[in-house]
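Lab notebook page, bench 4
Experiment: in silico fold of construct C2
Operator: M.H.
Input chain length: 687 residues
Purpose: comparison with the prior construct
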Amino acid sequence: MSYSLAVDIGGTFTDIVLRDSKGGLSVDKTLTTHHDLLEGFFRGVDSVLGKAGVAAGAVDGLVVHATTVVTNALIERKGLPTALVVTEGFRDVLAIRNEHRYDMYDPQIEFPEPLVTRELTFGLKERVLADGTIAIAPNPQDIAQLVRDIRASGARALAICFLNSFANPANEALVAAALARELNDVFICTSSEVAPQIREYQRASTATVNAYAMPISQPYLKRLSDRLRVEGFANTPLIMLSSGGVVGAETAGKNPVRMIESGPAAGALAACHYAELLGIDRLMSFDMGGTTAKACLIENRTPLVTGLFEVDRRYRFKEGSGLPVTVPSIDLIEIGAGGGSIAHVDDLGLLKVGPESAGSNPGPACYGRGGQSATVTDADLVLGLIDAENFLGGDMSLDKPACEAAMARLGQALNVSPVQAARGIYRIVTEAMASAARTHATDRGVDYRGLPLFAFGGAGPLHACGVADLLQSTCVIVPPQSSVLSAFGTLVTPVRLDLVRSDLTLVAHLDWSRVDRVLGDLESEGMAALGQSGCAPKDVTILVGADMRYVGQQHEVTVIFETDPRQGRDAGALAQQFEAAYRTLYGVNPSHVPIEIVTWRVVARGPSPRFDGQTRPQIAQGQAKRHRPVHAWQDDQSVPVYERAALAVGQTVAGPAIIEERETTTALPPGWNATIDSLGCIIARKG
């Protein structure tokens, strides 16, 4: 028997999945240990290995990891001093940003503080022109002075971002090599390696985020690899990336900026996997964990991918209020609406939920770890949706008196009963998640009405039917092991690396020899990275796309081409595919305007791991194991409680009902009916 292991570290829980070669799964959840993430990692791994009755040496397949280590470093600002080297005269690039205001009428508009202060930003005399011509090469004497300045500053990480380095990285590479020889204890990266794209501010921001995270990510991944080897695991770990692929730990350590959304990306990939199994082309994935909720559109059984996202936003729904990162990432929306989201009363006396989270320490009041604020999980407990004695199968008992006290304090501040306060939390967080999903779909030109809602995460199945009702979804799908599905997603995604490079050119005047050179370089880089992850060249598939726009526009539309454009060399076909994508988004095409390619994209992808899952065995239809009072829909409603494992294929459960399993609970409101399919999925429909 062969085994593969996946671990997803979230803001509240760390999820572990052990998969055997026959498709069987052993899973566990444990609280995330933020003081040392590997403590919770190996605590969970030891637990799941014990459940399966196997030793670490039996895990001879994949070991895949998704982690919040980079996200935590950026939000908490606990990184080491980081410096930035720019072209002389451009030291204020991070402070000036791009001069866009995400809210034109807010006189107190806020932006996150730059990761690098002006005092740690150094200018160097050099210049590359927009066409790649080197007008001024760096002077050795200036570089020597730069070495002295950086050494005196105490910086432990360094990003280099010169003007137009995407067109010619020679100056950046020269300076990086010279600094590396003299500053061998400093982590160094260049913008031309991390994000070789136009737009100076976004490129500088991406490079500084990467440099800031390197002193944290590289030692962390090295400790992880060493510990796995000492424990007896056969293979080095693969790391989940924001783009939905996995690469080796060494490649990921050099590019931590690509790991920021690794956990949410894994969840989206798991949704795609089930879309294939269930034969559904379009759905909305809905992942609600302990800290955040995420929504992602799945089109043609594939998630949308974006080339720009933001971290550390001041306002979650306001684009432009965070630090831009120009690396490929699965396109999803994330809001502070998880089980640990804290409820509070604002200055107007209104009930608000999130975005602040109680996390795993102290956690919600019901965790009994010192938390005093009422959270979404506390509301679910007060409403009777979850069982204090059956949380994590009884391994983690909840403190109901502490929960009721926290809800009573909130109710007193609102002048309502504790149950009314809990209902308010439940409804507000449900509406917030539905609103986020609407925004995500509408901004991408997609009609969300009627899309099935694929619900997972520790709290997702509890709230999914309410969210689906607001989105007019046709049904809710809750897969098996839904609470740890993001960890499972890392086991069904291929080794993959997304690469980009800007090369502004008119489609009508494409220089195919130049196209061959740019795409050839990206393809070679991708093949090398996948080779380090153990992928044979014959198994690598190359996909080609581009960011395109009409001349004069500021923003581009990303198009993944149906075939490699180097084969047909048909510029007209590229234009037609762009026009089709543009019309989908905007409903019109200014056909008289020329089209230009801004950035080329190459995806190097290995084979997808085969995993068909286990069909559910035929058993007798299970009966409700008990009834308990639930207050979510009306006062003291006696609701049947079912054990999910006891439900038979084809069995229908009528709402209101509660379906429990060890790691999560599915809430079925009045008027909803749920059926168990052959894969063990709960398929819930209204009416």
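Observations: Residues 496-605 form one domain. The mean pLDDT is 88.
Next step: discuss at group meeting.
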